Amino acid sequence: MSLVRILDLDLETRKVGFHLGGRFNPDGCEPVCIAWSWGTEVHCLSHSTTWRRPMEMLKGFRRVWDQADLVTGHFIRKFDLPILNGAMMEWGLPPLDEKLVSDTKEDLLKRAGLGASQENLGVLYSLEQSKFHMSDQHWREVARLTAQGLRLARERVTSDVRQHMALRAALLRAGMLKAPRVWAP
After folding, report:
1. Are 38 and 3 in contact (CB under 8 A)?
2. pLDDT tens digits, one per residue of 1-32
3. Element (H, E) at 12
4. pLDDT at 52
5. CA of 16: how far to CAs of 20, 35, 102, in Å?
6. pLDDT at 139
7. Quick one: which H or E segment has residue 20?
8. Sequence-distant (≥ 6) Cβ neighbours of residue 166 within 8 angstroms
9. Residue 183 has what pLDDT?
């Protein structure tokens, strides 16, 4: 019997496009940092100001994706994975293959009166791991790909993966997550 390889995933983005067919596009963003863990150490690939770096980041992450049997994250079905696929398309790379996905927001049991942000759930479950907070000015630095902005984005994305791993474990212990589902591009 083989072990299931579980990949915990998060990414940080920056706005790159504001118009889609002449209309405002609030989702026009690209990955700046991609962080993941196989359950222990958190790894991170990030954008830089050099032209080839986004492709290197995406190709590097693709090698990780291909090794996973199950991918986990918070709101990854509707945010992270579509953005990664859009970036793959833009850079002429093949789309991500379908995978079994456990999404700690989308697979959370139905509820009312309770916010489902990762930060909110982290407080609810008294997690020691917390999100690295960033101001609007910090996000401006990220969008401009400054050295400081990229350092902050890497700190944010790795803290999110650490918190997510703890949150998923707490939700599983509490019986609050539905079964994983296949995500397809």
Report:
1. no
2. 567 899 999 999 988 766 556 555 546 788 99
3. strand 6-15
4. 54
5. 12, 20, 28
6. 93
7. strand 19-20
8. 122, 125, 127, 128, 129
9. 96
The Cβ of residue 90 has, within 10 Å, a number of other Cβ atoms equal to 13
Contact 81, 95 (CB under 8 A): no
Residue 69: predicted pLDDT: 97
Question: Which residues of the chain are under the pLDDT cut of 50?
Answer: 26, 51
Q: 64: closest CA among 36, 83, 102?
A: 36
CATH topology of domain 6-183: Nucleotidyltransferase; domain 5 (3.30.420)
Contact between 150 and 142 under an 8 Å Cβ cutoff? The reply is yes
Say if residues 90 and 119 touch (Cβ distance below 8 Å).
no
Question: pTM of the prediction?
Answer: 0.90
Whether residue 118 contacts residue 106, with contact meaning beta carbons closer than 8 Å, is answered with no
Distance CA 99, CA 169 (A): 20
Tokens at 162, concatenated: 């650490």
The single-letter code of the amino acid at 179 is A
Distance between CA 72 and CA 86 in Å, rounded? 19
Strand 19-20, strand 42-46: pairing: unpaired
